[in-house]
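Q&A log
Question type: sequence-to-structure
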Amino acid sequence: MDTVTKILRPTRENTPFGPDMSDYDLWKLLSAPEIAAIDKNKFPQNNTLESILKNDTRIRQFKPGEVVVREGDYGNSAFLVLNGKLRVVLSPGLQNYLSGKKQTPKKSLWKSLSRIWINQKIPEVRDIPRHTDPKILKNDNGADSHSVFLQDFSTVLNSSNTALLEEGTLFGELAALRRIPRSATVFAESHVELLEIRWQGLRELRKYDKNWRRMIEKRYSQSGLVNFLKKVPLFESLEEEILQEIAANTLFQSFGTYDWGDPCKNIRRKDDNAFKHEPVIIRQGDYPDDLLIVRAGFARVSKHLEEGDQTVTYLGVGHAYGADELLQAWEGGKNVSFKVSITALGYVDILRIPATYLEKYVFPQQTFSNGQPRKKGAASIQGHQLTNLLNQSRDNETLMGWAVQERFINGTQAMLINLDRCVRCDDCVNACADAHDGNPRFIRHGKTFGNWMVANACMHCMDPVCMIGCPTGAITRVVADGTVIINDNTCIGCETCAESCPYSNIQMVEINDNKGNPILDLETHQPLLKATKCDLCIDHVGGPSCVRACSQDALHRVDFHHVRPEDAVDQPVI
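Response status: OK
Response body:
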């Protein structure tokens, strides 16, 4: 009797994005002007243009009134309009018309209760047919095809501010490549045929074809910029025409490395001084001539003191810096300069808005809260996280400062444990194991600050760099809420995500069949691996088992964006 099970290792070709794409469909795509213009000779033999279209794209049909993407949803793909017309909804959006966000199915109450007396004795068991049956693998690509229609299509067209998208238009690349929520809602005005390109394929097209790279970069720097500016407090009261003028004259810059996970880990292993490795956006003492706004990623704000550089806070998406200094200069201040330095944490996209547009459209409108006109030398209008923080001393170092240093500000669901309350009972670990068939999905140790520890559990990052290199799209985000999950059936065990995670929160495990026999690669005879991590018990009623199991209220899942510096050393804000 065999003591091992051997199967062929799953590959990228087992899980195409468009399982029904035929040779005729491929031929038709290659004839489309936007695809025909691509130089096929620039692609390597092991990753041809044809293979990218076959594996990383799918053709989708939409009916009039059907929503293609929704503002606020997380996107894993971009779209090219093959034929038909769509509408992109401009501010203020369609919140009153949209419903039907797809939710992850939860386990039934019976299945949840059954775990009390049914304990999986064999860890990491996998159903062999799900890993070997081509029909199952072909249709298990994690693609979201949940349809939503506008409730009153004609009313939306007549009453909403929309822009037309026609044949040959590319949209959705911003969310797909930068791992951020969709910036606008797009719906079909007529019957529409779209080529949906999952972000792995978009990345390859950008890499090997210069025209696509230029198109994507241009689209990225311009796409949704007016809508984005409307959400920045300084500009929210400006009219559409003014915002369009500002957007047309905004400079777009990128700093740092897009795939920043590995460089970050290497720096931390070799050198504790992260400052000197971070690309400089502005330096303390520089003359202010632009307003800086973060469009994607994070930036460190630091102040140079005699004893060294002190981290003050960080800037995230939508945060601005420079308004105070520009206002001071506009009011006639002498020798005005930036009070801090700003450097890129990993990767950051920056918008630079020339001072002339603030002087023309923003500063003259500023008023006191009582409605009286602003006077010379009036209080700051900047209104973001830097308020009152510049006066902090090194003695007032906070959890937030530590979170910036360790990049934990990237986490939206970090596992924060109060070590003063934790009694080391491991109930959290056992509960996680019970919820995941015998193996816990986190490790109860990690970086500490005072009595706080951030455990090695997936933080469901705002910028999940673990997704970048996944060849099959197995690691992705739930469209509705951004939870980062791994499709076990399409994971090929390449370890790319585990190596990319800056926090070492993804574990590779050897898998077994239902008899406890190890599953080996049929060709190499080596154990097959799967990537595992915390999934926030996404299919369980009641949320994360670790939190519910902690009888001491020592464990919380926190978003570091909402941890206030003045409160964090006492208790986390969740």
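Response note: Residues 368-373, 375-396, 564-574 have pLDDT under 50 and may be disordered.
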